[in-house]
């Protein structure tokens, strides 16, 4: 199970990295996630996520039972210590897996929102241009001087472009800041995860060494 959890975590990390950087792979990842979120995809994802969450709760309960047995003053059993370390590793991996899944879903949602915003801005520019052309024709019909019409057109065009560019820049900065925050948070969790794995491996090694020593003593006795 641990190998499967590691595989899924690395896949999720690869998808998140592909979404953070503008590469040809990013388009295929977005298309794939769009298809996953259609039809029965959300139901399947929720089912798998719920199953992982239930297994996580079961693992935490097993850890609590082992900790309760140790706190009651019983003898330290090397087998219980090994099981405790294994449960801690599995719980950490499952929690990190669920967190990466949530972050992947939110990042995909923000990228889609950003694309819709860009399309809206482009549509607004086209409508503004069409409106200016209509006003230009109407002004010519009313025999308005050509210089006044040209000046009004330039003024409106400059104002609309300035507002659209300002709004677009603000939304892009907000999206980039959010993506950077998610990336930094992911890196922090990855470092904590690697540190936890190293600590758990060291504990397992020490416990196995202790178990070997105890077995050797029993053998000599």
Automatic annotation (TrEMBL):
The keyword Transferase does not apply. The chain crosses the membrane at residues 6-22, 43-64, 84-104. Residues 128-147 are annotated as: Disordered. It comes from the Eukaryota. It is a multi-pass membrane protein. It is found in: Endoplasmic reticulum membrane. Keywords: Endoplasmic reticulum, ER-Golgi transport, Membrane, Protein transport, Transmembrane, Transmembrane helix, Transport. GO terms for biological process: endoplasmic reticulum to Golgi vesicle-mediated transport; intracellular protein transport; protein localization to endoplasmic reticulum exit site. Its main location: endoplasmic reticulum. GO terms for cellular component: endoplasmic reticulum membrane. InterPro entries: BAP29/BAP31 (IPR008417). May play a role in anterograde transport of membrane proteins from the endoplasmic reticulum to the Golgi. Belongs to the BCAP29/BCAP31 family. This is Endoplasmic reticulum transmembrane protein. It comes from Kalanchoe fedtschenkoi (Lavender scallops).
């Amino acid at each position: 199970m641990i190998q499967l959890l590691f595989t899924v975590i690395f896949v999720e990390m690869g998808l998140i990295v592909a979404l953070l950087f503008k590469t040809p792979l990013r388009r295929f990842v977005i298309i794939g996630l769009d298809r996953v979120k259609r039809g029965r995809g959300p139901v399947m994802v929720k089912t798998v996520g719920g199953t992982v969450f239930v297994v996580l709760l079961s693992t935490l309960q097993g850890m609590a039972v082992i900790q309760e047995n140790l706190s009651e003053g019983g003898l330290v059993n090397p087998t219980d210590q090994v099981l405790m370390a294994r449960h801690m590793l599995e719980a950490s991996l499952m929690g990190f897996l669920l967190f990466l899944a949530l972050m992947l879903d939110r990042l995909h949602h923000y990228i889609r929102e950003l694309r819709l915003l860009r399309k809206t801005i482009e549509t607004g520019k086209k409508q503004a241009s069409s409106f200016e052309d209509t006003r230009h024709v109407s002004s010519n019909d009313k025999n308005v001087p050509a210089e006044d019409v040209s000046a009004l057109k330039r003024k409106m065009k400059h104002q609309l472009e300035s507002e659209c560019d300002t709004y677009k820049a603000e939304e892009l900065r907000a999206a980039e800041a959010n993506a950077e925050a998610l990336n930094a948070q992911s890196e922090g969790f990855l470092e904590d995860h690697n540190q936890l794995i190293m600590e758990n491996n060291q504990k397992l090694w020490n416990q196995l060494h202790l178990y070997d020593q105890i077995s050797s003593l029993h053998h000599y006795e």
